[in-house]
Amino acid sequence: MLARIVDTVLDRTIAPGYSRLGYLLRSAGFVGDRGDPAPDDLRGRVVLVTGASSGLGLATVEGLARLGATVHLVVRDAGRGAAARDAVAAAVPGADLHVTLCDLSDLDDVRRAAKELADTGPHVLIHNAGVLPPSRTLSPQGHELAFATHVLGPHLLTSLLAPSLAPDGRVVFVSSGGMYAQKLELDDVESTKVPYSGTAAYARTKRMQVVLTGLWADRLAASGVSVHATHPGWADTPGVTSSLPAFRTVVGPLLRTPDEGADTAVWLSAAPAAVIGTGRFWHDRRARPEHYVPWTRETPADRERLWTLCQELTG
């Protein structure tokens, strides 16, 4: 009971809970239903990880490989993907690793790559690819880059791979705790009505990912596929260093390692289905509220409007 109270306090106070301190305090309680998967729990399972060439994605690939999974690194750059594969292969001898090129912001490229990825017979799809543009940038189809990378690309890839996912398969969206500051914004998804802020666009699209998690969970429930979202807390990654240098300077000593940030995504890939259910938002192996303040709450109609919008823009 005391551990649960401490966990909740850490979560609500944000900085302690999102920092490395929060992870270290909570990880002592990773036992029972929240315990570590066995070393071979993902043997024979195929996992696809987008944005896998560095940071959280690379740490996720290594964590999955240590559990015996066959892992496909879905990356934009062939050279960086090969370097990431080789780094994991050196750390996990015998790991079964593959590289697939795909730019999640380019819907045509998503369609091309989906044909190749469907043939792998995937069990788990982890949407980890992320961007925080310094200025408003457009995807090849003319969509704002964060919206295309975090929302449209993952939605389309999930749609195209859903028929190929194993009956007990899983989809995991790697969101961000920053989404708590944003409501579901559907009247300016392309970020044209106010001066552009990459941080705001990032957080808004991460809120959209959490909403999509519930929508996909409902639609895939009959197939046995579960859908989850998680946020990693504050992790020390190349993305943080390049996109948020001031933040990195101030809180650097408190940042989690990439392995700590990736922990829950790896755990969700292997945890018993009865433990994790579906349609939930996770942090440090525990389901969390999707809202902490009333003004960020969306209506069921808003949620369905997001679904319709994604269907129209990716159709």
Description:
It is built from 13 helices and eight strands. With 315 residues, it is α/β, with parallel strands linked by helices. Strands 3-2-1-4-5-6-7-8 form an eight-stranded mixed sheet, sandwiched between helices. α4 packs parallel to α5 (78-91), α7 (145-161) runs parallel beside α8 and α7 (145-161) crosses α13. The model has no long low-confidence stretch (mean pLDDT 93).
Which keywords apply here?
single chain, 315 residues, alpha/beta, eight-stranded mixed beta sheet, 8 strands, globular
What topology emerges from the helices and strands here?
Layout: H1 2-12, H2 15-18, H3 20-27, E1 46-50, H4 55-66, E2 70-75, H5 78-91, E3 96-101, H6 107-118, E4 124-127, H7 145-161, E5 170-174, H8 198-220, E6 226-230, H9 238-243, H10 245-251, H11 258-270, H12 273-276, E7 280-283, E8 286-288, H13 300-314
Parallel strand pairs: 1-2, 1-4, 2-3, 4-5, 5-6, 6-7
Antiparallel strand pairs: 7-8
